[in-house]
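Batch manifest, entry 17 of 40.
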Amino acid sequence: MKTSMLLFAVITVFNFTACSGGASRGTSGSPGNQAGDTASASDCASAKDCRLFDNYCGGCACDALPAKAPDPKCDKGKVACVVQPCSNKMAVCSSGKCGVQ
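Output type: C-alpha cells
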C-alpha cells in the first residue's frame, strides 16, 4: 500500500511539473507536424480569427490556431495534465499571427 501511494505521488508530481508550466511553446506548442506549423503566413486580422486548443499530444501545451483550422492530429500518445493547458489564457492576433496570452 505504501509503495503504491509513493508511486502515485511521484507520478502526480511529474505530471504537474511537466504539464503545468503555464507558458505556451509559441504559436503552436506542438512539436513537428501539427496544424499550427502549416498555417498560412497571415493567420488573422483580429483575435476573433484565432482560437486556443488544449493539446495533450506528447505533453501539455496551449496552441493558438486560426479559428477555422482543424484540430491537430496526434501521432504520439496523449498525456493527462493536472491543469487544462489553456486555462486562464486567451487567443490574440499579433502581426497577423495567432498567439497565446
